[in-house]
Amino acid sequence: MSTTTQAPRGSAPTRVQSLQRPRLPRWAPLLVALGAVAGAALLGLLLGWGLLSTGFVALLLFVVLMPVWSLVVENRRAAVDRLMTSLVWSAFLIALVPLLSLIWTVVSKGAPQINATFLTFSQFRTDLSQPVGIYHALIGTLLITLGATVIAVPIGIFTAIYIVEYGQKGRLARSITFLVDVMTGIPSIVAGLFAFALWILLFGPSARAGLGGSIALAILMIPIVVRSTEEMLRLVPDDLREASYALGVPKWRTIAKVVLPTALGGIVTGVTLAIARVVGETAPLLLIAGLTTRTNFNLFDGRMTTLPVLIFTQNANPGIPPPSGGEPPGIGIAWGGAFVLIVIVMLLNLVARVVGKYFAPKTGH
């Protein structure tokens, strides 16, 4: 006598079949990781490997053992999924190692150099007993970057407005977009050579000024500002433009009062990231801004030192080591300048995120 399961009225009879397969426990990756570390450590002790080699072997063992265990217990699809997940995490960890190593090295060697004297004194001194610092390079970095921002931001924003709002898919707009893409990939030394050639044609071969460095950095900033602003303007819905046109508002006023405020958060973020991109450039400024130990507040006259140039020159010419032993004095100044430069770039990135979030269009009802 067979028994059947009655289906509810109005529905066809169905047969439920369990398709569940065995799954690895949630602690399986941790167990495999511990086993991989133990195995790699054992091999490292036996063969005399270093910490980096041992870590790489442990990572390789984890990538191999985790999919194999999954293939035995689960199925092929789950094993492939765990293999790809392991590869993604491995790539992330491998990319994280040099970043953390760089940050640790700069912080450990540069942070002890930071004090009030280091940040408020320049390298110009009349006798050897006077302290030295990076104040002149800090002022030069801020002024030259400010000049580059004043030059590049209006040009970049207006260019993007023409491409999106006026040129659209015309031949001139396509040509400008192509040239901007080409400018994005040019080496910084090429921008420096162009600015240097322009500067000596206008003011002579011996002329050096911070404004020339601003022009060189502006050449590197313009394509970044154009591309970021262009993408933000394209994200503005056309419905907002059409609603403004329907009310009789002219196109220029629609752009100024509707389009730009809507995309302001992304535009400011792109500008800030462009500043962070060029603040660490060295090659263009070596050519045109020059090098000096004095603090120069005049962007239009005289040589002006920036932090990247100071770091390069101090590392290339560190000075005479002290009689008691240790590193030459220029090495400490270079590490301290590198630490300050990293802090500036980090602050610019944080400001970009905060400003972008603050000016982002409000969502919700």
Short account of what is shown:
Helices cover 70% and strands 0% of the residues. It has 365 residues and is mainly alpha-helical. The protein has two domains: 20-111, no CATH class; 135-358, MetI-like fold (Orthogonal Bundle).
Helix content: 55-70%
- Number of helix segments? 14
In CATH, the architecture of the largest domain is Orthogonal Bundle
- Assembly type of the chains comes to single chain
Give the overall shape, derived from the CA principal axes.
flat
N→C terminal distance: 63 Å
The fold-level CATH name of the largest domain is: MetI-like fold
- What is the CATH class designation of the largest domain? Mainly Alpha
Count of domain modules: 2
Question: How many β-strand runs?
Answer: 0
Description:
The protein has helices at about 30-45, 50-75, 75-110, 115-120, 135-165, 170-185, 190-205, 210-235, 240-245, 250-260, 265-280, 285-290, 305-315, 330-360. By secondary structure, the chain is mostly helical. The N and C termini lie far apart (about 65 Å).
Key traits:
365 residues; mainly alpha; MetI-like fold; 2 domains; 0% strand
Task: Show the helix and strand layout.
Elements: H1 28-47, H2 51-73, H3 76-110, H4 116-120, H5 135-167, H6 171-184, H7 188-203, H8 210-235, H9 238-246, H10 251-262, H11 264-278, H12 283-288, H13 307-316, H14 329-359
Helix pairs in contact: 1-2, 2-3, 3-14, 5-6, 5-8, 5-11, 5-13, 6-8, 7-8, 8-11, 9-10, 11-14, 13-14
